């Protein structure tokens, strides 16, 4: 009897406990009043451009605005607050985010920093102008992992508050690209502990030296600015993507003469870097546990002031399938046969000498190399085991056409006539034929020594046709 009564009481207790805890754990449905006030501020600082329909769901006049905000405001994602008392905005995407949308206009309100539970803040491309609020940096947004404000008209400096000690401790991705920012990268920005992806591309006016890279970045895109100085050393060995294209940087490339096992895209083009091409770029970057290295697929070093012979790839597979652009530099010596494994190779407008090794003819006729730009050098032949027009292989009179989609440009070299091309070559080089003969004997046997006479002084700086 007693045990029955006990069982009954026990079940009653359980039922009450369950009911009690269900009530306790009922998820909150109302957005915190402070976050709602920020959304109101955002909705009045930014506006749809004609053709954009983002803010039509943001209705503050309804009595249920505090519950609607998380359930039906476009771009707003909420989660329960730590004490489960109400909802907080954890992700905010401002703008429709579809390619055709013209996006938003207006300015970013500093009150965004009151959304202290935010982990993602994205402004889609549009015409939002004015400064990046200083308040977004510092300690206001400890949970923020992603901040993307790219493709707008934001101007002024990158706030120093972003680089303050302890600022944005969880920020993983910062994309401020394609705006109108100017001034230096604050010291410390590249030391934010969680930062892995930084895009400051195409602002135009960001300037000064690139500060030391003190964190294991994966992706760094600084192209299209006005940065000066050399590439910081050491570069994080973790890099997968690095672009500083189109700046005013200079110095040698020795920071790249190291192993970057995961690097797949490197673009240093259109600067004033000088000295040799780092040999390590053409060495297989094999991790001990792996058979095949992950391939660097794109290597762009064109339009710098690089000199010396091109380093030979340390094994034929080292550049297999890569796109390599070394054009418009001051490279000397002959073309290393190992580069014939590349998928596309641009070495035009250099000072290369000697014959193009037969490996290149094999690659272009096999179609494994689809583009070979070697015009505007001092090359003396296109060695081929195959019958080529003008070549000296067997059956030289038969002229096998290049495979469809393959382009080989050899004009303005020290060979007559260019054996292949020019279909598909740049218009500027299509009908140039050979280099004036006096320039060719003047180039003394690949040593880079210029001898005068026999037709006049040789200027290295050939006028572009
Ligand atoms: C943001 O927070 C500050 C400081 O707590 C406060 O003065 C301001 O009114 C808040 N802004 C909004 C829009 O809630
Ligand atoms: C780049 O910086 C130089 C000074 O270092 C300045 O004269 C030039 O106007 C800047 N260019 C741009 C596009 O900001
Ligand atoms: C390229 O290097 C040469 C030799 O070091 C130097 O004379 C020239 O000024 C450099 N050109 C540029 C554009 O930096
Ligand atoms: C080029 O130099 C090599 C060795 O340095 C020599 O054997 C060869 O005859 C030279 N060729 C010309 C055309 O001077």
Automatic annotation (TrEMBL):
<keyword id="KW-0732">Signal</keyword>
<dbReference type="InterPro" id="IPR032675">
    <property type="entry name" value="LRR_dom_sf"/>
</dbReference>
<dbReference type="InterPro" id="IPR001611">
    <property type="entry name" value="Leu-rich_rpt"/>
</dbReference>
<dbReference type="Pfam" id="PF00560">
    <property type="entry name" value="LRR_1"/>
</dbReference>
<feature type="region of interest" description="Disordered">
    <location>
        <begin position="424"/>
        <end position="465"/>
    </location>
</feature>
<dbReference type="InterPro" id="IPR053213">
    <property type="entry name" value="RLP29"/>
</dbReference>
<protein>
    <recommendedName>
        <fullName>Leucine-rich repeat-containing N-terminal plant-type domain-containing protein</fullName>
    </recommendedName>
</protein>
<feature type="signal peptide">
    <location>
        <begin position="1"/>
        <end position="17"/>
    </location>
</feature>
């Amino acid at each position: 009897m007693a045990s029955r009564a006990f069982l009954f009481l026990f079940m009653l207790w359980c039922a009450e406990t369950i009911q009690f805890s269900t009530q306790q754990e009922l998820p909150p449905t109302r957005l915190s009043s402070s976050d709602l006030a920020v959304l109101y501020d955002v909705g009045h600082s930014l506006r749809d451009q004609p053709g954009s329909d983002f803010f039509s769901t943001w209705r503050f006049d309804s009595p249920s605005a505090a519950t609607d905000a998380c359930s039906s405001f476009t771009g707003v994602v909420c989660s329960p607050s730590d004490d489960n008392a109400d909802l907080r905005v954890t992700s905010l995407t401002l703008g429709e985010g579809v390619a055709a949308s013209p996006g938003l206009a207006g300015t970013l309100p500093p009150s965004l920093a009151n959304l202290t539970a935010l982990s993602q803040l994205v402004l889609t491309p549009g015409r939002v102008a004015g400064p990046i609020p200083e308040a977004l940096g510092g300690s206001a947004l400890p949970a923020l992992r992603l901040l993307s404000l790219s493709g707008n008209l934001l101007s002024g400096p990158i706030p120093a508050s972003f680089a303050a000690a302890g600022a944005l401790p969880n920020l993983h991705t910062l994309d401020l690209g394609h705006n109108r920012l100017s001034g230096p990268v604050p010291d410390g920005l590249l030391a934010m502990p969680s930062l892995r992806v930084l895009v400051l591309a195409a602002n135009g006016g960001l300037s000064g030296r690139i500060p030391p890279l003190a964190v294991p970045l994966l992706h760094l895109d600084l192209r299209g600015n006005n940065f000066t100085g050399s590439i910081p050393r050491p570069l994080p060995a973790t890099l997968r993507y690095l672009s500083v294209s189109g700046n005013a940087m200079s110095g040698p490339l020795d920071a790249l003469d190291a192993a970057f096992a995961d690097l797949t895209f490197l673009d240093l083009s259109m600067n004033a870097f000088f000295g040799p091409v780092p040999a390590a770029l053409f060495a297989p970057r094999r991790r001990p546990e792996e058979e095949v290295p992950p391939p660097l697929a794109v290597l762009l070093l064109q339009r710098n002031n690089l000199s010396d012979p091109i380093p030979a790839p340390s094994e034929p597979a080292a550049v297999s399938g890569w796109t390599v652009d070394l054009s418009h530099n001051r490279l000397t010596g002959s073309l290393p046969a190992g580069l014939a494994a590349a998928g596309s190779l641009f070495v035009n407008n250099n000072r290369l000498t000697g014959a193009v090794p037969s490996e290149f003819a094999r690659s272009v006729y096999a179609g494994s190399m689809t583009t070979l730009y070697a015009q505007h050098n001092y090359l003396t032949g296109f060695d081929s085991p195959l019958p080529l027009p003008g070549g000296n292989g067997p059956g030289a009179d038969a002229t096998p056409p290049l495979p469809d989609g393959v382009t080989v440009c050899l004009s303005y070299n020290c060979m007559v006539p260019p054996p292949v091309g020019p279909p598909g070559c740049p218009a500027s080089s299509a009908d140039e034929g050979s280099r004036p003969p006096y320039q060719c004997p003047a180039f003394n046997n690949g040593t880079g020594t210029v001898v005068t006479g026999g037709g006049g002084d040789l200027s290295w700086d050939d006028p572009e046709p």
